[in-house]
Structure formats: structure tokens, C-alpha cells
Write a sequence for this structure.
């Protein structure tokens, strides 16, 4: 849950009289479903493996729109000792963000739409020689149960949206992001009693996908260099952070 003091505004929509719906409910649903389809598509055609480190694999497809690099990115990783819920929770929750995000100057929640959907405004660290970027996106966390026996899939989607509390102010440039983190929990040699499951019995299979448009021209080679360096760094740092944070805590299924 988000501490109330960090929320700049609550949704103007009266969710209690609207079956919990808000103005972005349909968009959230559409984009979540798109990601659930897209995550199944494999990377055998047209994707380059740009980084591999143990279980971590980072792929990208080189795509330009009007001379701007918008390369889609797809990463796979397996992390021992944590659940998909834990990975998604630490990715979504505001209070942990600045502990693992090294590419931000600041982050804040400008609106809470419902208990699982908030709107973030973030200032990204400037990368010379490009102008500083900012971003404004809804961020949604969800648990999808597959069957009674299987562990549920957890997912977080971050998707750019405009907001009156986050006007675009030159010289900053607004980047456009569509990011998803989709996680499954695997339990190996499950003990008869689920209460006896230990961290050594669990691992998380993670897929992270990103479509980012830098929102204005950036030298292609420089941007591709930054992406090749920064996405693996993010995955490594973020997942190690969650492992450290949860090591001595009860397992969050
Ligand atoms: O997904 C990540 N972080 C989330 C929480 O902050 C959120 C962020 C989305 C935006 C990611 C865009 C970064 C790209 C910035 C490019 C700026 C232009 C540089 C010009 C270079 C010459 O979903 C983790 C994001 C990890 C990014 C490496």
C-alpha cells in the first residue's frame, strides 16, 4: 500500500459508486491483455541477444520511427529464493523505487486511481548530450490465477499517460514508455504441507519487456549503447535487491 502522505491527489472519479471503475480502467485492461499475449511470442525471429549473464538474457529488435530509435526489448531471468509476487511488489511500490532505480533523479505518485493502479511522475537522470527526460505513466499491479494447483502469475504494467499535474515543460522531453514485468513462481520438490515451503524450494521466472520512445531525437548509437548497458544493470541490481530485502522475511506468495 502507498503511504497517504506520498499521494498528491486521489482520483476525481467516485470509484465507490462506479464498481471500482475509473477513467483509465478500460485502457489498463486492454494493455494488460496485450502484454499477456505478447509475453508468449518467442524471440527466435528478428531479435538479437545483446547480453547474457547466467540465467539472464536480454534481447532487442532494432526499430526506428521517423529516425528515432524505439527498439523493443525483451528480457528473461530466473531468480532463486523469491516469488513472482515479491518481485512485482518491489517493482510496483513507490517506497522502494529509489533504492533500486539508479537512472532517476526523482519519482512521485501524482494520483491513486484504485488500490492497484497509481500514476507516477518521474525525472530521469540526464544523459549527455541528450536533453533531460521525464515520464508520466499509470502503473498497475495484478495477480492472475491460472488454476487451483498452479501458482498465480503476477504482473506490473507501466504505461504512459498525460496528466494535468504533470505538464510537459521545455527543455525537458517527455519519454513514452510501455513496460511490463511478468513473473511466475516455480516450486521445486514441494513439501506435502505448503506451510513447509522454504526459500530454497522457490524460484521466479521473470519476463521484462519495454517499448520506450525517447520522445525526441537522440543519437542512435548513443541510445543503443545506453540501453545495452543499463537494462542488464537494472535487472541485476533490482533482482539482487529483492533477494536481499526478502531473505529473512516470510515468503509472500
Ligand atoms: O522499468 C524500469 N523502471 C520503471 C520505474 O522507474 C519504469 C521506467 C520506465 C522508463 C524507462 C526508460 C529509460 C530510458 C531512458 C532513456 C533516456 C534517453 C537517454 C539518451 C542517451 C543518449 O518502468 C527500469 C528501467 C531501466 C532503464 C534502463
Amino acid at each position: 500500500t502507498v503511504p497517504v502522505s506520498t499521494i498528491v491527489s486521489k482520483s476525481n472519479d467516485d470509484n465507490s459508486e462506479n464498481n471500482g471503475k475509473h477513467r483509465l480502467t478500460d485502457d489498463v485492461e486492454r494493455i494488460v491483455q496485450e502484454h499477456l499475449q505478447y509475453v508468449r511470442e518467442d524471440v527466435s525471429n528478428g531479435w538479437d541477444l545483446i547480453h547474457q549473464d547466467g540465467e539472464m538474457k536480454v534481447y532487442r529488435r532494432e526499430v526506428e520511427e521517423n529516425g528515432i530509435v524505439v527498439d523493443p526489448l525483451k528480457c528473461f531471468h530466473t531468480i532463486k529464493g523469491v516469488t513472482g509476487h515479491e518481485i512485482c511488489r518491489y517493482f510496483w511500490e513507490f517506497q522502494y523505487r529509489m533504492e533500486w532505480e539508479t537512472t532517476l533523479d526523482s519519482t512521485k505518485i501524482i494520483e491513486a486511481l484504485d488500490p492497484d493502479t497509481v500514476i507516477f511522475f518521474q525525472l530521469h537522470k540526464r544523459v549527455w548530450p541528450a536533453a533531460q527526460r521525464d515520464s508520466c505513466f499509470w502503473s498497475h499491479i495484478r495477480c492472475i490465477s491460472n488454476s487451483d494447483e498452479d501458482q498465480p502469475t503476477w504482473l506490473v504494467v507501466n504505461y504512459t499517460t498525460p496528466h494535468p499535474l504533470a505538464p510537459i515543460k521545455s527543455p525537458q522531453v517527455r519519454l513514452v514508455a510501455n513496460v511490463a514485468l511478468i513473473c511466475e513462481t516455480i516450486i521445486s520438490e514441494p513439501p506435502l504441507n505448503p506451510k513447509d515451503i522454504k526459500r530454497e524450494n522457490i524460484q521466479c521466472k521473470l519476463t521484462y519487456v519495454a517499448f520506450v520512445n525517447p520522445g525526441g531525437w537522440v543519437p542512435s548509437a548513443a541510445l543503443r549503447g545506453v540501453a545495452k548497458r543499463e537494462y542488464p544493470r537494472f535487472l541485476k541490481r533490482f533482482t539482487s535487491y529483492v533477494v536481499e530485502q526478502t531473505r529473512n522475511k516470510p515468503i509472500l506468495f
